[in-house]
Amino acid sequence: MNMISTNSNYQQFGGKSSAVLFFILMFTILIGSQSLKAEELERIHVEPDNFPAEIDALNLAIEEHGGDVVYVLENGATYFIEASLAFDHPLRFEAEEVPSDNPPIIRAATDLEGSSNRIGMYEDDLHARGIFFYGIDDLGGKETNQRTTGEDIRLVYEHCYLMGGSNYFWWLGAEGTTLIIEDTQLANAGRHTSAGNQRFVDLRGNDTDSVIVRNSSIYNLSSHLLRLGGAIVDHIYFDHVTVTNFYNVFGGGINLKLSPDITIKNSLFQNVRFDGAWESKDLVGDDGYEYDGERYVSQSGMFWTQTWEDFEDADDPDQPTDEDRSIVIKNNNFGGLPDEEVLAVWDDINDEENYVTDPQWLWDNPDIDPEHPAWGARDTIEVVRTNLPAKDSLLVAWQEAEKPWVDIRNNIYENVDFEDPPSSFGESVRAWWFETSPPRHYDRWDDIADNSGQRFYHPAPGTPVDSENTAAWFRNLAYNTDSPSYTHAENNFPVGNLNFFPEMRQRWEEGDYPTSADEPEKVAKDFELVGNYPNPFNPTTNIVFELGETADVQMQVYNVIGQQVAAMELGRKSQGRHEVTFDASDLSSGVYLVRMHANEQVQTIQMTLVK
């Protein structure tokens, strides 16, 4: 039974209750209580399939033991699903070792005619921990990854991996679902021949309780992150999420619609809406080129929002209004790829500079070979490069009007280079424009065609389903610690998935906040930079600090890109509580970092100037 009541259609809007407190309580209740219950349940070890002679061991085990157990799967083993996982009781899957670079794999199997089933058609709750859900069947075909049919159910994924799927990672096929994703990595859903259907979560018009994503990564998609289809999600929450290579002309972004409680923070959105960075010159004219010397913003309209004014019924006293909403979008990086990388891909794609193939022509001719004469005569559009904000026009209007239900601040647009980025980015884009068959990153490998007489698909070393280092396929999306993004999240943590910064992830979980990128060691308790008041401020604020012993104190102030904007020598201060007034009359509105030195100790806080 779902432990959170569903507020679908704003039946219980809840006013402006703190989203932070809500989600802290929710994660404590949902994951904590479920883990406790799992420890009390019997643990059933499931032997892996004797593939290909015998398959479906997991389904057979579930049929025998039911729902009040934890099914423990072997690390490195593959469990083929002959019939979709569809039971009217809860399912709990857990790897022997969590986390692991070699998790157990659950994937679809084909029958003798080559047909396969979806991995899951869940009718009740699911809790998966340390599992790799692989949406590619044993013949290399793509199948639906995760789908639900039951109402008011809860899906929890911890330390999981999801690869591939015909259209989406999750299709929430009934109302009232709570979806929780934590410490999980996802890649490559959909087919380039149906790019508009490649979705992270698709609600199919079903009102949903919550979609919560924490400390996870999503890459290589070409349509919506959240596709609502007219539905309302009561709670949307993204915290420390990395999203990259989200490139389709026809879709993209997070569909907020009429959802009442939205928090998107501390996350890294790189190269979202790649194609959207180029606009038709006929539409924008000669002035459409807005490159500002710092970045190419690769997304357009990343957030899609609607207003309740279009739906209000004056005769209905219970009709919700926008004033009841809470929309928080803060401390994120909405950057693009470095210019040279973007332009290199476009040089490969386009025959002439500043011309691209008409997307409608591509949509009408998805399988045209570039060697075919029709390719040379295809319809093209003259385009100009544009810089477009992540916010849609409604969010911009609300922000400019200072609507109290919108809190959009402290977001940056920095291009970062990942240490080990997904190499399939170029292949993804090229496939969308002119590939004739699924490219390698969609996991239909050449050995299928080269070995057509083989009944089953055998992965080669280094592929996602190789028996060793399976999870290593998911690239390291860490970036340089000198980047502004490295200290841009709340409490000076890096934005994006902290699994790529193991030490920082541990400190984040422990609530141990770093002082700076250069000095991660814990600050001694005899010096504390308490904070500042008022905050936000205009133009002066009082900065409070406490000393456990007499110390020489210096203070510097930096902007969010690391430039020092002020410095103060405060001199020798005695033990006790002190205040210093900071005047920001000469500075522009924004978030600033206060860095204070007391003897050999350093602490940092954030403050917000609003003029």
TrEMBL record:
Transmembrane segments: none annotated. Pfam families: Por_Secre_tail. It comes from the Bacteria. Residues 533-604 form the Secretion system C-terminal sorting domain. This is T9SS type A sorting domain-containing protein. It comes from Natronogracilivirga saccharolytica.
